[in-house]
# Entry
Amino acid sequence: MYYRKIITELLLWKDKINRKPLILRGARQVGKTTIVNHFATYYNQFINLNLEKITDAQLFLNYTTIDGLIKSIFFLHNANLDKKENTLIFIDEIQEVPYAINLLRYFYEDFPQIHVIAAGSLLETILTENINIPVGRVEFLVLRPVSFSEFLGAMSEKQSLELIKSHEVPDYAHDKLMTLFHTYTLIGGMPEIVKSYAADKNLTSLKKIYDSLLIAYQNDFEKYAKNSTQVQVLRHVIKSIGTETGNRIKFERFGNSNYGSREVGEALRTLEKAMLIQLIYPSISTKYPIQTDYKKSPKLHFLDTGLFNKLAGIQKELVRSLNVESVHQGKVAEHIVGQELLTTSFSPLHELKFWTRENKDANAEVDYLYEYEEMLFPVEVKLGAAGRLRSLHSFIDTAAHNIGIRVSSNHFSVENIKTIAGKPAKLINLPFYLLDALDKILNVHV
# Structure
């Protein structure tokens, strides 16, 4: 089992006094079941329910009282009810019996001693007016693809991992860490891909796994879609991900199609619910809190950079490249930075944002915004001299601080600069591999 930050979050949940049933969210194949099976080793008893199995589903379908349900679960799985305080119940594929989602409230109200985790591949897509998540009686964590630090753990790169955790990387370690990050950018963070590559370092053998993952998502279209027309639109949207990811998109005629805004918008929102994509809307504010402008065109972000590379047909280009910034017009570098920024939080409210200023005098756009200590920091992904970061300078000029962040293949450094308007500022030059340590670095320099 490779290092996963989510285990630390789960242990914090385990020790809460007012613990609630936990719904573990995330796209299909990001490792939810594997993580819970590993986490179960911290308990004396583990009851694993899979509601795709008829016998487990019947427990909830035949529900009369919560007391009877609990007794049935413990009896049929040979668990001791007297030891319920140190028992973990995992309800996997809970979307197969949607009513079971409502029943989570009674686990919290009547049996708070029992630790309950639920997960489902298409959980968000099956919620209706009659099947609602019991607000206030459950809590959530989102599982995403493997981060770079977790990739290092899978690769048994213990010394590299320790350097990143300390965020003090000597010059002699830079090239090796950039090579490792380049590999991570190429293959992405899907757990099955990372596990396979860590075992044999064979890039060729990954092709079948990529294909099986993408086919699995395609096979879900029937479950996502309300009708045959939406199936076709969803197929088109997925095929267009390779060319549209990283772009600011229009729903009308998306991906050079004849589909209208309503059809495409519905398809994109369905895929977003399934956590396969994220629509990143721009912020118009340089100060906290973020003010999102949903009237402006969003950027499209896909689940995983490795899958994006596969869909875009740029894996060989990445293998040949000397730095990730030069590939696919910089979209790959921008995408992997977004993927890393998402792994800094397990909250379902954690989303990517970028900044724009659009007026008749001059337009400006910053790749990402990063929240820290109720401040917003501009993040640009590019090489180049500090004076050429015009959009980042424009952001700093009206921000409540004087710090900008540039992510690239260069060594870590902090430059004292002046914005184009003359405001004294600090530019943090952050190598890709230190994105996971951004909070620690900002704590030193803010």
About this structure: Residues 148-342 form one domain. The chain has three domains: 6-142, 148-342, 354-445. The mean pLDDT is 91. Residues 168 and 306 are 28 Å apart (CA to CA).
